[in-house]
């Protein structure tokens, strides 16, 4: 294949346009650098009338909004999924791993839950606390100024509560709890579980002239046409370009490898254009990888440098290692007291208005790490199905099972809004033997070698899930509800979803002070290649019991300013 080379050299070439790539593009371009962003999917702007799905009705879709073409429903903003045509991956042994890819400008930030939690002081030093995993080479105090700036730049709802490991920040006014969330709050607190206003990256008041304010349509998963919720394209890349940032977007371009010269310095990124199926190279003084933890690991493992044939930056042998995802388990239930109630607008923001941060003392429990609780249940726009199937509700209420026409419609109106779910999102322990590698027998549509996954849950995660199930069932009962989810056993991992299903994978290029057991330093810079940085969640030494996005953003901001400083000092 002929490789098309362009003589133009950028100051920085960024692979990926999600949280890490978007923040990198904004910070670097605002500092006067010429930036190229390589994105594997198409251009996307939720304000474009031809791309917009917000405020469209289910009956406008031939599939009535069902998830037959997109994993979260026909109108979800995700261009991608756990399975992509002609982009395979494989697993070995007893591995269950589901790898979500979002091929579009802005990546996963277009359709995520926007739960925006800082890591706390303890989350950077877990090995000191329980002896497992590794400490981060940075502390909370080092990253706190960047969390503060992300809060102010992007906007996040919440309240300052003085919690040690769920730190305070700069918050916008949170919306009021919905009726079902008030029931949850009362029952959870009766069970010793704290409840606070949720921390979500939606604008409940005006932040700047580039973005609108949330109007409570509850459709953030469709990506907001007025840019009131956080997406990397809407809130980072577009404003940077609008205000003079020198950013070239190379969309529909699948990164193949990082090119290095005889000195070991990175000089370019090779990519395949999906439009003409030809291979190109784009030159850069600095290369920033922000393609997501597993995609960045794949890119490094598919790259070569002189004297090292096991992947770029992999002298430690740990690229792809220490892969871990959030734990996830949950239940759903039916609450009769919410039947036949007065109809009023319960839409609000897209997602929960309250949440429960981890409250337990692991020293008194049989598992080492915690979880937070997400929940939901309201009278938003109905979707296909009712809490696992209307027939089960009919049995519960002693109704005749089955039916059609007006009697069935009457029943559905009675139970509409009476369903509720709780889900735990917890921390797993990073292990060397949970990893991804290049599949020696697999390539994708563009001839790029694919990944193969090795991953197993341990009792650390299983017993955490058991605690989730017991807690959720107790709360649901105290809400006056009936649990509709069958109880899971140890052999069923107590209901744990497969690794990868929560889409929080981290750790494949973890940071550390010792090059023998880590891939990057504390600024995301490869130990082996001084002009290559990783600005996604691959650098995480551990996940924490929080969603990773706010930490990706804070680290990408910090790393990008370090790049600017090093370029000025001529250290790169």
TrEMBL record:
<protein>
    <submittedName>
        <fullName>GMC family oxidoreductase</fullName>
    </submittedName>
</protein>
<comment type="similarity">
    <text>Belongs to the GMC oxidoreductase family.</text>
</comment>
<keyword id="KW-0274">FAD</keyword>
<keyword id="KW-0285">Flavoprotein</keyword>
<dbReference type="Pfam" id="PF00732">
    <property type="entry name" value="GMC_oxred_N"/>
</dbReference>
<dbReference type="GO" id="GO:0050660">
    <property type="term" value="F:flavin adenine dinucleotide binding"/>
</dbReference>
<keyword id="KW-0560">Oxidoreductase</keyword>
<feature type="domain" description="Glucose-methanol-choline oxidoreductase N-terminal">
    <location>
        <begin position="205"/>
        <end position="325"/>
    </location>
</feature>
<dbReference type="InterPro" id="IPR003953">
    <property type="entry name" value="FAD-dep_OxRdtase_2_FAD-bd"/>
</dbReference>
<dbReference type="Pfam" id="PF00890">
    <property type="entry name" value="FAD_binding_2"/>
</dbReference>
<dbReference type="InterPro" id="IPR007867">
    <property type="entry name" value="GMC_OxRtase_C"/>
</dbReference>
<dbReference type="InterPro" id="IPR051473">
    <property type="entry name" value="P2Ox-like"/>
</dbReference>
<feature type="domain" description="Glucose-methanol-choline oxidoreductase C-terminal">
    <location>
        <begin position="438"/>
        <end position="556"/>
    </location>
</feature>
<dbReference type="InterPro" id="IPR036188">
    <property type="entry name" value="FAD/NAD-bd_sf"/>
</dbReference>
<dbReference type="GO" id="GO:0016614">
    <property type="term" value="F:oxidoreductase activity, acting on CH-OH group of donors"/>
</dbReference>
<feature type="domain" description="FAD-dependent oxidoreductase 2 FAD-binding">
    <location>
        <begin position="11"/>
        <end position="44"/>
    </location>
</feature>
<dbReference type="Pfam" id="PF05199">
    <property type="entry name" value="GMC_oxred_C"/>
</dbReference>
<dbReference type="InterPro" id="IPR000172">
    <property type="entry name" value="GMC_OxRdtase_N"/>
</dbReference>
């Amino acid at each position: 294949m002929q490789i098309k080379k362009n003589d133009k050299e950028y100051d920085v070439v960024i692979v990926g346009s999600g949280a890490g790539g978007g923040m990198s593009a904004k910070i670097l371009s605002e500092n006067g650098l010429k930036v190229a962003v390589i994105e594997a999917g198409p251009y996307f702007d939720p304000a474009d009338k031809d791309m917009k799905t917000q405020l469209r009705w289910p009956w406008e879709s031939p599939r009535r909004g069902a998830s037959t073409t997109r994993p979260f429903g026909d109108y979800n903003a995700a261009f991608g999924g756990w399975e992509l045509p002609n982009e395979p991956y494989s697993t070995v042994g007893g591995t269950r791993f589901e790898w979500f890819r979002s091929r579009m400008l802005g990546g996963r930030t277009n359709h995520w839950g926007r739960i925006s939690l800082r890591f706390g002081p303890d989350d950077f030093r877990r090995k000191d606390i329980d002896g497992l995993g590794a400490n981060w080479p940075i502390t909370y105090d080092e990253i706190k100024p960047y969390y503060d700036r992300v809060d102010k730049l992007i906007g996040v709802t919440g309240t300052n509560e003085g919690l040690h490991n769920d730190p305070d920040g700069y918050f916008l006014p949170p919306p009021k709890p919905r009726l079902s969330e008030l029931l949850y709050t009362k029952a959870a607190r009766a069970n010793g579980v704290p409840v606070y206003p949720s921390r979500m990256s939606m604008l409940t008041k005006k932040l700047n002239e580039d973005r609108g304010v949330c109007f409570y349509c509850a459709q953030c998963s469709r990506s907001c046409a007025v840019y009131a919720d956080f997406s990397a394209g809407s809130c980072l890349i577009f404003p940077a370009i609008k205000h003079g940032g020198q950013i070239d977007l190379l969309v529909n371009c699948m990164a193949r490898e990082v090119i290095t010269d005889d000195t070991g310095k990175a000089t370019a990124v090779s990519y395949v254009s999906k439009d003409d199926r030809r291979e190109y190279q784009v030159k850069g003084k600095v290369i920033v990888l922000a393609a997501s933890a597993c995609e960045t690991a794949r890119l490094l493992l598919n790259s070569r440098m002189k004297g090292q044939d096991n992947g770029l930056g992999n002298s430690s042998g740990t690229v792809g290692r220490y892969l871990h995802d959030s734990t996830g388990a949950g239940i759903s239930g039916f609450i009769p007291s919410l039947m036949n109630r007065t109809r009023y607008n319960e839409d609000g923001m897209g997602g929960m208005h309250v949440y429960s941060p981890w409250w337990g003392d692991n020293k008194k429990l049989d598992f080492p790490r915690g979880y937070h609780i997400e929940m939901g249940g309201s009278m938003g726009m109905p979707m296909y199905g009712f809490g696992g199937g209307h027939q089960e509700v009919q049995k519960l209420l002693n109704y005749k099972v089955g039916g059609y026409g007006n009697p069935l419609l009457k029943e559905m109106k009675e139970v509409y809004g009476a369903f509720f779910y709780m889900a735990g999102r917890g921390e797993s322990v990073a292990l060397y033997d949970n990893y991804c590698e290049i599949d020696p027998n697999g390539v994708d549509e563009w001839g790029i070698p694919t990944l193969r996954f090795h991953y197993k849950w341990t009792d650390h995660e299983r017993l955490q899930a058991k605690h989730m199930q017991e807690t959720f069932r107790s709360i649901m009962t105290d809400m006056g509800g009936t649990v509709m989810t069958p109880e899971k056993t140890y052999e069923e991992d107590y209901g744990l979803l497969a690794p990868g299903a929560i889409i929080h994978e981290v750790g494949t290029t973890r940071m550390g002070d010792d090059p023998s057991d880590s891939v990057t330093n504390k600024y995301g810079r490869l130990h082996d290649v001084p002009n290559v940085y990783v600005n996604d969640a691959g650098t995480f030494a551990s996940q924490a019991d929080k969603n990773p996005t706010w930490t990706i953003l804070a680290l990408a901001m910090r790393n990008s300013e370090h790049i600017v400083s090093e370029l000025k000092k001529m250290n790169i």
